[in-house]
Specification:
Layout (H helix, E strand, L loop, with lengths): L6 E4 L5 H12 L3 E6 L2 H13 L3 E6 L5 H15 L4 E4 L14 H29 L3 E6 L2 H5 L5 H21 L4 E8 L13 H10 L4 H7 L8 H8 L10 E5 L2 E4 L17 H12 L12 H5 L1
Parallel strand pairs: 1-2, 1-4, 2-3, 4-5, 5-6, 6-7
Antiparallel strand pairs: 7-8
Helix pairs in contact: 1-9, 3-4, 4-6
Length: about 300
Amino acid sequence: MDLSNKVAVVTGSGQGLGLAYAKDLARHGAAVVINDVNATAADAAVAEIAAAGGRAVPVVAPVGSTETAQALVTAAVEAFGRLDVMVTNAGILRDKVLWKMSDDDFDAVVGVHLRGTFTCVREAVLRFREQGDGGRIICIGSPAGQRGNFGQTNYSGAKAGIVGMVRTWALELQRAGITANAVCPVAVTAMTETLPIFAPFIDEAKRTGTLPPVIRREVGMGDPHDAAGIVTFLASDEAKDVTGQAFSVGGDRLALWSHPQLTATAFHDGGFGADDIAAEWPTTFGEALESVGEKFPEEVVAK
């Protein structure tokens, strides 16, 4: 797969998943704008890509504001002449249960994930439309946004919002040849290492160098580089007709998330009053309720 004619911005790419995406894009020929709030991490990422024969420049700035989004697009154009791919990966966590979550906890996470995705994509699309030959929007979501996760009101809400925006953008941008997709990765990173359910397996992987099959296949969780291939594919010409989709990726598993669909339907002439709903409930809706949260194999839960 040849991306030598592509220029990509990857936000939050100084380490972890973002760095894996940037390195894989560069390995396939794309020039990359590295973004991070940590100058040392950004410079190290650029140096690593350059040492492998790739092309990269750093932009050190927090994602969220229009000014940062404009700086990222400007860096791509000034360094490499154009922009073809925007990967919105930057993120932070401020995990707390609802009744302990402050306004600042909520605003900080939503500002980086949701507003940061919006501002970066908007600036990228303005450039794409000016260039007139399409583009690729790849937004990083999360299983937490698809199914919810305890203690992550802010994060789950932002990630769900990202997938909602992607579906809207797929509609709005199709005529301009611009695709918009979401990737919901699961990988061993600084973020996931804090989750107690995965701690024994991550500790074991640090000793042995590998995660067990139940984690890589059943949970779909692996190293950051396991999640990079789908980003590179979506950035390529091979994916020119793929838009409005949400992918699950991690470990040895790649899957598509379904879009929300009506799963149980009833009709009542004149509409439904509360008593009508109560009468209909056992036969139509009671057995059709959806589960919430991720469901892990018993082998994982028991450990």
